[in-house]
Amino acid sequence: MVRPQDRKFVTADPEKCIGCVVCEYACSMTKEKTYNPTKSRIRALRLGPLVNLAITCRHCEDPACVAACPRNALTQEENTGIIIVDEEACDGCAWCISACQFGAMMMHPEKKVVFTCDSCKNEQDGPQCVKWCPEEALTFVTSDVLAQKARISAVKNLFQEAKEKKAENK
Amino acid sequence: MYAYAGKILRVDLTTGKVSTEPLSEELAKNYIGGIGLGIRLLMDNSKPGTDPFSPDNPLIYVTGPLSGTMGPTAGNGYAVVSKSPATGCVGEAKAHGFFGAELKRAGYDAVIITGKADKLSYLWIDDDKVELRNAEHLRGKSPYQTDVAIKEELGDYYIRVSAIGEAGEKLSRIACIINDEFRAIGRTGLGAVMGSKNLKAVAVRGTRDVNVANLEGFKEFVKMIHERMKGPATKKYKTLGTPENVLVLNSLSALATRNFTNSRFEGAEKVSGEYLNEHYVKKIVGCATCGMRCDHIAAVSEGPYKGAISRLEFECLWSMGPLCGIDRLDAIIEAMKIVNEYGMDGISIGVVVAFAMDCYEHGILTKEQTEGIDLRFGNAEALIALIHKIGKREGWLGNTLAEGVARAAEIIGGDAYKYACHIKGLELPGYDIRTLKTAALGFSVAFRGACHLRNGAYAPDVKGKVNRFKIEKGRGKMIVSDGNLYNIIDSLIVCKFSRGTYYDGLKDLANYYTLATGIPMTAEELDKAGERIENLARLFNIREGKGTRKYDTLPWKIMNVPVPDEGPAKGAVVTEEEFQIGLDDYYEARGWTKDGVPTVEKITALGLGEYAYIVQGGKA
Questions:
Q1: Smallest CA–CA distance from B227 into chain A, residue
Q2: Do B283 and A50 touch (CB under 8 A)?
Q3: Assigned domain for A133 exists
Q4: Could you tell me if residue B459 is inside a domain?
Q5: A75 is a domain residue
Q6: SS3 category, B19
Q7: B175: DSSP letter
Q8: ipTM higher than threshold 0.90
């Protein structure tokens, strides 16, 4: 049994992401054998030149999308946290889309059922967007590691600041 | 067809009629896409002598074969082609960002826009659905404000918009078209053609698949280019960016300063790429599908221009900096920002202001005529004030300068022509071509007017491959081969910043093309296509009465004012004699007559036989 904090998902570093959408193309190429961002499981957003981020499913604990589905078409895989869509049961009502705070649940333009990131579970080397990201802004990590990284950079910043203050006082 | 959409859209703004027609594989292979296909469509869809502002002048949006694919840089490009109101010749420019991919996904290789809307309008292309919508409420708005407003109005954040600003609406001949905030169809005044059609913007949503012929092979090719983009071929663009040129050119006495008076700038350090990156660049972002990233986003955090933010590249930094004698980057960033807001060519605007400053310093423009602006070289406030006037066409001076330097010099009269630095009506880019003479020759023969991107002729000079202080036999050949290559780059709409990643040049590009389209292509065929495009553009210019030897000129200062600065460049000037030798050499290398006209044999060999009437003085 995998603990929730050990589940991996794809996340973008806002410091590094430049909104180039290579991830969208890599995703649609891998999953749909075509180039079409509207069929990508990850979407990048540029709200301004300095505000860029790619977003996909974060495999939430107690996922709102699953809870919202009136037809029990969505289930969460125990070990991976991946949201599985039963394409027979889904009727495209989009309640899960409104429920997801990340916009990570999307309507497939042709199948008319929802789709989301499955962490490229059928690919040997994991999520292809991570592999293709030219900025190394995307990582496939657990929430535990994300927390560790945040702590490390917080501590580094603190000590950097302390050093600079010391230097100023000299 | 693979990669191509296989379809051309026609829109008549006068009648509102919309139709589509197929793109033939023959046309696709012979003209590739981008400017090649665009120039062919311009030739076939316009009558000789059409005024650029006539409703009959077609404004042609073209994608490339790779637009919409994952191809780095080429995946996101588009071109616009029309008869230029600045030059009366072929007008063309390319832009990257996100718009081009969207247009391809909507299902079009080209959109031919003719006619004139009865009120300010925008074209809304939603896959198959094409609609002309009211844009009167967007009058005077910047391209970016227009972009935001249209997205809001249509309710989709992922719509892409290509729009003009106030300068285009007011038919400024230096107006450009901008997509994705600061990506410009910059040169040759195409924003004014759009304005003349009462067309404020083209908005697109494309949701179709773009499929390549050989997905596995294409994927491997793209992976290889991504790897190469991490290496030395793109290092300049990823680190200091093109502003690195400031100190490089200054050290070569090739940094045109104070409207091509000096070739070195004493303030170069303060406007260098090094200084810019250390003090102003906040982030380097990139276009869709590109693994390179080059967009240096500069922001001013203090002083009178606090809050100014813009992308900044060498050419515009130069035109509004050293060329105007200005050594303040904060003012240059502010200037760049407002130039984008009015929607003007960032190279031309600086050359226009520098021209006015030169006239003012020589007493040709009085303080009365400048309405009190002290237009001395180096006056940053004057630069900003004048840009506003030109963008709005405000007053006599703003109105005159909005016409570009060539026409402004005619209006001002007297000796003003001596200070108008243009070729064929297009303002010079950022190289002092008195000390880079292969570039001087290359710029003079470029079909869209003074341009460093039609044949890259500055490269052999800057890299020390030739004696740059001299034009001699042999230069013509260099310009020919690079000219053909650049035509292909602009027809595939590959970003020129990435040109170094195609280690095998045309061979790599031919392979890239075939993997995407499935259409067999060799390096030789591509080179021939590049030559075909060059000849076709020349034929268009001849048809419009501006394509012969007497129009391949250099600005007065370049041929009459020697470099005054001490050093190896002192006294450099292009002489009439060497220039004529250069023209002869170039025409010979092209297989053209002494008058610079393609021969019937040449035209026929390139499959352009149907246009032989143009050089035979007859009618179609």
A1: A134
A2: yes
A3: yes
A4: yes
A5: yes
A6: strand
A7: B
A8: yes
A121: nearest Cα among A21, A35, A30, A54: A30
pLDDT confidence of residue B618: 62
Identify whether A157 is part of a domain.
Answer: no
Residues B291 and B414 in one domain: yes
**Interchain contact, B285 vs A22, CB within 8 Å:** no
| pLDDT beyond 90 at B287 | no
Angle between helices B346-361 and B380-392 (to 10 degrees): 120
With an 8 Å Cβ cutoff, are A34 and B210 in contact? yes
Q: Which residue has the tokens 């009178």?
A: B304
pLDDT band for position A1 (cuts 50, 70, 90): low
C-alpha closest to that of B533 among B4, B62, B3, B56:
B62
B535 and B611 housed in the same domain: yes
Question: Using H for helix, E for strand and C for coil, what is the string for B154-167?
Answer: HCCCCCEEEECCHH
Would you mind telling me the total number of residues written for chain A in this entry?
A: 170
Q: How far apart are CA A52 and CA A29, in angstroms?
A: 22
CB-nearest to A109 from B207, B211, B291 is B207
- Would you state the structure tokens that stand for residue B548, as one six-digit string? 């012969």
Cβ of B210 within 8 Å of Cβ of A109? The answer is no
Output the pLDDT for position A169: 72
The contacts of residue B256 (CB under 8 Å, 6+ apart) are B262, B263, B318, B322, B323, B428, B430, B431, B432
pLDDT in tens, B11-57: 999 999 999 999 999 999 999 999 999 999 999 999 999 999 999 99
Tokens representing residue A142 in the block: 């657990």
Facing A34 at nearest CB: one of B181, B209, B285 = B209
Give the pLDDT confidence score for residue B233 in this predicted structure.
87
CA distance A17 to A88: 36
Domain boundaries, position B43: 7-205
Would you give the distance in Å from CA B430 to the centre of its chain?
13
Burial of B157 by CB count in 10 Å (0-12 exposed, 13-18 middle, 19+ buried)? exposed
Report the distance separating Cα B228 and Cα B49, nearest Å: 46
Residue of A20, A36, A49 lying closest to B105 (CB–CB) = A36
Q: Is B95 helix (H, G, I), strand (E, B) or coil?
A: strand
| pLDDT for res B620 | 55
| CB-facing half-sphere around the CA of B401: CA atoms within 13 A | 31
Rounded-to-10 torsion of CA B590, B595, B601, B605: 40
Q: Could you tell me the two tokens for B46?
A: 């316009």
Q: What is the CA radius of gyration of chain B?
A: 23
Residue of A nearest to B284 (CA): A18
What does DSSP say about strands A74-76 and A83-85: parallel, antiparallel, or unpaired?
Answer: antiparallel
pLDDT tens column, B102-145: 999 999 999 999 999 999 999 999 999 999 999 999 999 999 99
How many independent structural domains does chain B possess? 3
The whole-chain average pLDDT of chain B stands at 96
